[in-house]
Amino acid sequence: MRYIDPHIHMVSRTTDDYQRMALAGVVALTEPAFWAGFDRASAQGFYDYFRQLTVAEPKRARMFGIEHYSWVCINPKEAEDLVLAKEVLSMLPDFVRADGCLGIGEIGLNKNSRNELKVFEEHVQLAADLNQLIIIHTPHLEDKHKGTRLILDVLKSHSALEPSRVIVDHIEEHTAPLVLDHGFWAGMTLYPETKCTAARAVDIIETYGHERVWMNSAGDWGVSDPLAVARAQVEMRRRGHPEALIRKLVWDNPIQFLSQSPKFRAPAA
Amino acid sequence: MAQSVRSPMSHRQLTDLYYLEMRAKLLDISAFLDRLDRAQDADRRPTDFRVDGMRRAFQELLSPEPGRTARVHLCLSDPTAEPISDASGLKGAVGAYSPDSYRPIKEAGK
Question: Measured between alpha carbons, how far is A158 from A138 in angstroms, rounded to an integer?
Answer without folding.
Answer: 18
